[in-house]
Amino acid sequence: MVPDSPAPGTNVIVLAPSLSDEKRTACLDLLEAGPVGRLDVLHVTYSGAPADLVDQWRDHHGELPGRMGIVVVGDQPGQHPGGDSVPENVFVTTANPNDITGLGMRLNNYLNDHDEDSRLVVCFDSMTEMLQFAELQPVFKFLHMFAGQLREADAVAHFHIDPGAHDTQTISRLKPLFDDSVDLTG
Fold first, then answer.
1. Model-level pTM?
2. Residue spans per domain, the chain
3. Consecutive H or E run containing 45
4. How far is Cα 111 from Cα 52, in angstroms, rounded to an integer?
5. Rounded to whole angstroms, how far apart are CA atoms 33 and 121?
6. Tens of pLDDT along 153-182?
7. What architecture (CATH level 2) is domain 10-183?
8. Distance (Å, rounded) from C-alpha 156 to C-alpha 182?
9. Mean pLDDT confidence for 14-31
10. CA-CA distances (angstroms) from residue 168 to 3, 98, 123, 173, 175?
């Protein structure tokens, strides 16, 4: 079950199959942490096209948030920054999936521009794909630091992982980084 509205400063791990509708719906529901015009939405994606993410947001919430950023990790076809279907006020950038430090720098730059009068909400999709490019220890360190930054910014953040793609030790190692968990596998 998805928490109605996690408290500010809460990082949630979402356990769900990678391609499930429940995962996408949970993501959009968790991003609903206040009035749309006062939201600052950051979406980190390894597989979503920016135009699709913008369309999904509009379909679910009606209007775009006050500020929206999309970090595309990797270079998949159709994921060009900007593009015809992405409004000019949606910030889109790319990161190399093999460079956790570079990803951290892009996220840090976005967070540095966050206006404290808006509610920061973050969707990190997905830790499963991140672990395809990096070992568990550097991923753990990255997530520990990023979750701490989000907590300090009073963000509501959720991090997706497909438990069917990992052994129980990996899930057990990552779970303590988060304040709450949502299991959509049952």
1. 0.89
2. 10-183
3. strand 39-45
4. 23
5. 7
6. 999 999 999 999 999 999 999 999 999 998
7. 3-Layer(aba) Sandwich (3.40)
8. 14
9. 74
10. 24, 24, 23, 8, 10
